[in-house]
Design goal:
By secondary structure, this protein is mostly beta strands. Helix content is 0%, strand content 60%. It has no helices and eleven strands. Strands 2, 4, 5, 6, 9, 10 and 11 form a seven-stranded mixed beta sheet that branches. Strands 1-3-8-7 form a four-stranded antiparallel beta sheet, with no helix packed on it. It is globular, with a radius of gyration of 13 Å.
Length: 115
Amino acid sequence: QVELVESGGGLVQAGGSLRLSCAGSGNIFAISAMGWYRQAPGKQRDMVAIIIVNGSTNYADSVKGRFTISRDNAKKMVYLQMTNLEPEDTAVYYCNVRRISRYYWGQGTQVTVSS
């Protein structure tokens, strides 16, 4: 199994920045993709950013130019650098990995952006 733990969330003002971190453990070999998803109250869980094994990335249109996903394979970490945050970014952010056609999730970290 894969275990994921997110950290770095918090309360920030609009225009501020946060860096989310995801630490992986367990069967972390043969991972084909990693990413960040978010879920606001009363909303569906949506993709924010993904990075696949070859380093290619994809972002939701709403965060392009503001968020950057990166990874450090040696440290078994995935990051999401968020800048110019908006109140609409308020959500629980979840780390996700895909391994052998299965998806694994962390418990999430709360990001709240005030007006």
